[in-house]
Specification:
- This protein has about 375 residues and is an all-alpha fold.
- The protein contains 16 helices and 2 strands.
């Protein structure tokens, strides 16, 4: 619990100082692009929230080293291995000049370093055929790198609204901490809690006012950190189902996979091309109808912050079965299929204006079909 408090207060302090500095160095630190398909803020905002998160974890590493000596290296190695993902993301946050492919490559390098230095390799999956692949060292490295890079990218994908990704990651890390305590891995549980504290230290500045954004550096690093905690838990404790980590992370992971499918096969566009039709974007545009047409900064920010709680509920829907059945692969596989089916049905209903009425916040605004116009790409219609 001390690690959670230390990382929280350090992250909150450093994030607050970052916001303060942005008033003087806004041209370099802030996101001035308000027109993109995934831009839902009304004024320039600093997007280097990852700095405070890493600062909180770094102080925990120093405290851990001073108390326990060199025998406890998990935190230090997690930070060291995560540097490529963090640094490349921060360069993008400052310059807007790093392609998604390069950011993914840097995250893959972080995953490879963790596999080499920490033994964080996926060697079992409980999925027929895939277990044969990971039975070889090369196969294990390839799947591990793919999974870690995928989870990191998925956290970046859902980083579209105030409080969305940071709270989801906090809840996921809490789930990992609980199971780590259940299997007696106090060290891993403490580092999961340290991640929770660091993410919440950023969260208090990001939600609801959106005073700072996570940015690519923060999103990729948090995704890497969370994925490595999941893999280390699997490596150290055979009783933990290899599907447990996937069940915990299924919301952002399936959001990413579904987006790739939607862009490639339905809209016939490049899978890496940003658009404004993610589930969280649809909720913002079609469920929160009370502010439709309002363009002042206060209304946009309030509407932005009210989007995240919908997705927190979606995230929790995967965490509950993960907590209850963390040692049972057959049951987790069943709940994975249920989650995927429920997600697709919900998305289908919202995108076709058939949203359940109890989900829609109207507050006096009309619910006509013509009130929202989504950006269209040259591909096939949704």
């Amino acid at each position: 619990m001390n690690f959670l408090l230390i990382s929280f207060f350090v992250a909150a302090l450093v994030t607050g100082l970052t916001i303060r500095l942005s008033h003087s160095y806004g041209e370099m630190m802030a996101d001035h692009d308000l027109s993109g398909p995934q831009k839902f803020h009304a004024q320039a905002v600093p997007r280097i929230g990852g700095v405070g998160i890493v600062a909180g974890l770094l102080v925990c590493t120093v405290v851990d080293w001073s108390i326990n000596g060199s025998g406890h290296r998990t935190g230090m190695l997690l930070l060291l291995c995560g540097l490529p993902a963090l640094a490349t993301g921060l360069i993008e946050d400052f310059t807007k000049a790093v392609s998604p492919a390069k950011r993914l490559a840097a995250t893959a390098l972080s995953a490879a370093l963790a596999a080499w230095l920490m033994g964080a390799l996926i060697t079992r999956t409980d999925i027929p055929g895939v277990d044969w692949v990971v039975s070889t060292t090369l196969g294990a490295y390839m799947l591990t790198i793919l999974m870690v890079a995928g989870v990191a990218n998925s956290v970046n994908i859902i980083d579209g609204f105030n409080g969305l990704s940071s709270m989801c990651v906090s809840l996921m890390l809490l789930t990992f901490a609980y199971v780590a305590f259940q299997v007696g891995d106090t060290e891993l549980a403490l580092w999961a809690l340290a991640g929770v504290g660091a993410a919440l230290g950023f969260f208090v500045w990001n939600f609801p006012g959106g005073l700072i954004f996570l940015g690519d550096g923060g999103a990729y690093f948090l995704g890497f950190f969370m994925a490595e905690i999941a893999i280390l838990l699997l490596v150290r404790h055979p009783q933990v189902s290899p599907l447990f980590g996937l069940m915990v992370c299924i919301y952002p992971v399936f959001e990413t996979l579904f987006s790739i499918y939607r862009r490639s096969f339905i809209r016939a566009t490049a899978p890496g091309l940003p658009d404004g039709i993610h589930l969280h974007s649809l909720i913002f545009r079609r469920l929160l109808r009370w502010a439709v047409g309002a363009q002042d900064a206060k209304a946009i920010t309030q509407r932005n912050s009210m989007t995240a709680p919908y997705l927190w509920v979606v995230c929790v829907c995967s965490l509950v079965p993960a907590l209850l059945f963390w040692d049972s692969s057959p049951v987790l596989m069943l709940f994975l299929l249920i989650f995927v089916a429920a997600y697709v049905v919900l998305y289908w209903r919202i995108v076709r204006f058939r949203t359940p009425r109890w989900l829609i916040i109207r507050n006096g605004f009309a619910a006509g079909r013509a009130e929202v116009v989504l950006p269209q790409s040259p591909g096939k219609p949704e």
